[in-house]
Amino acid sequence: METSAAMDHRAAPSLSAEEKRRIERVARCVARDRDGDLTEKLLLRLLAITRNGRRWGFLAPDHPLHPYYLQQKVSERCRILRPRPAAADR
């Protein structure tokens, strides 16, 4: 059975530090936006218009880095929804 770290590595095979930051930033923005689905659709539309696949291609479902983007988006949504520890223990 593979570990989570091994699956993360497989999901983003040749991810540079710049790509990782960009994907995580967009995933965080989409996850935090109240209407994140619309934001994502707008970003996909901009990708189609600008054809800047090198920079924003991960938004497209057929891009090799798209699974990493989805993973980051879900992770951020879970982090947002996770309850924080109560401050009553002070």
Automatic annotation (TrEMBL):
<dbReference type="InterPro" id="IPR035967">
    <property type="entry name" value="SWAP/Surp_sf"/>
</dbReference>
<dbReference type="GO" id="GO:0003723">
    <property type="term" value="F:RNA binding"/>
</dbReference>
<protein>
    <recommendedName>
        <fullName>SURP motif domain-containing protein</fullName>
    </recommendedName>
</protein>
<dbReference type="GO" id="GO:0006397">
    <property type="term" value="P:mRNA processing"/>
</dbReference>
<dbReference type="InterPro" id="IPR000061">
    <property type="entry name" value="Surp"/>
</dbReference>
<keyword id="KW-0507">mRNA processing</keyword>
<dbReference type="Pfam" id="PF01805">
    <property type="entry name" value="Surp"/>
</dbReference>
<feature type="domain" description="SURP motif">
    <location>
        <begin position="22"/>
        <end position="69"/>
    </location>
</feature>
